Amino acid sequence: MIRVIGAVLIIASTSAIGVRGVLRLRGRVKSLESLIASLDIMESEICTRLTPMREVLEMLSSGAPLPGRRLFENAANGMERLGKTSFYSIWSESVQRTKELALRPQEREVLSELGLCLGRYDVREQAETIARIRRRLEIFLKKSEEERDRDSKIHAFFGVAAGLFAVIILL
Amino acid sequence: MNDEDYRVSRYDGAVLLLPFGMRERARRLTRVDRQTAEEFRLRIGWPPTVMLPEGEISLGGGPVTRDDLSTVLEIATEASAHSSSQQIKRGFLTAKGGYRIGLGGSVFLLDGEVGGYGSFTSAAVRISREVIGAADPLMHGLTDGGFTSTLIIAPPGGGKTTLLRDIIRQLSDGGRDRPEMRVALADERGEIAAVTEGKPSMNVGKRTDILDSCPKARAVMMLLRSMSPQVIALDEITAPEDISSIQMARNCGVYILATAHASSLSDLLSRPLYRDLIQERIFDRFVIIEKADGKRTYRLERGDIK
């Protein structure tokens, strides 16, 4: 009986690792999708309605899709420090600290760059930068979708298979 | 808070608009200098300076950079310079607390009008201060027999806005021997009432309606139609359209309280723009601000000036 329970536990653990991998792949896609959708709202608020940055961030904190929304919540909270620190620092810290975003370091880097232009005087420059960042996120999104489609089954399969293999060896 | 502390606190507030690296040097000034400082000047390629009554002195440190000016804009607009683009287009912006920041740089034109700035080359952070009671020595003379249209005259930096603000407050609040008046304030540069988040940062009285960030001439007409004022107050008459709107308001029986750049009444009369206003007797009283031994004095003159 103990052996059966042990085998089940081993298979469940390795499967869980596999499922986690699958969820990470899906989470990355979802993160990038939510960020791209949010950038669209951001661009229209900044470039068309000339909405102040604090309001844009607060709006996205409540209306942007998850998990991207968490980034805007953190940035909106960080605005209290504006004046003591630069907007770029507030933004890039928020990008790095928002763990709900399943992004890779390179993707976080690209997103941080946005902080260099947001809230600047030149609206056209902001529109161009937002569009450029959006294009780069779309490339990341395409790659992440490919990875998700390609690797999800592999993760799930290897999770279960590794468990079974370990059980066979141990038994 | 006494007057000295208040003056220093306004200075300290303006320091917070400077780039982070400059603040410490700005704080090293003596207390007396911090009380009297009028402006910070930031010019690309030169060290930042502070304007004291005796002149402009360097704050030291490295030259001002383009990034420094961007930082000033970022702080003043709360990272929303794009939202203030209409105000910036007119050459200045008003930060929280009523600090006015004048901007120099390269402008570009769109259909013959200023479209905006291509780049910024300098900034002047004005340390405006409210002086409650500044108009005390004048109020009796200004309201004797009832308030009538008044023009405040002084050269740039002479204290016109400070005096104007306190007269507005005193007319609006009324006093022991004078009734409260409905004052409408056309605050184009947002420097008189310094409205931030819908609330005036400076005391302009309880019966004052404010229209800010709107060109003066248009603001006067809007206030005239919408707020049924007894007095319309505005800073710095500079353009023919300002004069037309003032004449219109006077024809409607509304009194005007305004300021103009001039060193004296004769200087004012020598300019065609103002000559008509004076000859038409739009203003009944003139307050001339004079500076002697570093102190400001006010001289009140009545209408018949030719």
Describe this structure in words.
Chain A is mainly α and 171 residues long. Chain A has one domain (27-146). Chain A contains 6 helices and no strands. Chain B has 306 residues and is an alpha/beta fold. Chain B folds into 2 domains: 3-126, 2-Layer Sandwich (Beta-Lactamase); 136-302, Rossmann fold. Helix content of chain B is 33%, strand content 29%. Chain B has helices at residues 3-15, 20-27, 31-36, 66-76, 85-89, 136-143, 160-173, 216-226, 240-251, 265-269, 272-279, and strands at 39-43, 49-52, 55-58, 92-95, 99-110, 113-126, 150-154, 183-187, 195-196, 199-200, 208-212, 231-234, 255-261, 285-292, 295-302. In chain B, strands 11-8-12-13-7-14-15 form a 7-stranded mixed beta sheet, sandwiched between helices. In chain B, helix 8 (216-226) runs parallel beside helix 9. Chain B is globular, with a radius of gyration of 20 Å. The model of chain B has no long low-confidence stretch (mean pLDDT 89). At the A-B interface, loops of A face helix 4 and strand 6 of B.
List keywords for this structure.
heterodimer; A: 171 residues; mainly alpha; elongated; B: 306 residues; alpha/beta; Beta-Lactamase; Rossmann fold; 2 domains; 7-stranded mixed beta sheet; 6-stranded antiparallel beta sheet; 11 helices; globular
Characterize the largest beta sheet of chain A: strand count, sense, and whether it forms a barrel.
none
| Count of DSSP-assigned helices of chain B | 11
Approximate shape of chain A: elongated
The percentage of residues in β strands of chain B lies in 25-35%
Uncertain runs of chain A are: none
General form of chain B: globular
- Whole-number radius of gyration of chain A? 21 Å
State the fourth-level CATH superfamily of the largest domain in chain B: P-loop containing nucleotide triphosphate hydrolases
Query: Uncertain segments of chain B of ≥5 residues (pLDDT<50)?
Result: none
Considering DSSP H and I runs of 4 or more, what fraction of the residues of chain B is helical? 25-40%
Give the tally of structural domains of chain B: 2
Rounded average pLDDT of chain B: 89
Q: Under CATH, the topology of the largest domain in chain B is which?
A: Rossmann fold
Number of strands of chain B: 15
**Approximately how much helix is present in the residues of chain A?**
over 70%
Q: Strand order across the biggest sheet of chain B? A: 11-8-12-13-7-14-15
Total domain units of chain A: 1
Quick one: which chains have the greatest interface? A-B, 20 and 19 residues
Instruction: Classify the oligomer.
Output: heterodimer
**Structural class by sheet pairing and helices of chain A:** mainly alpha
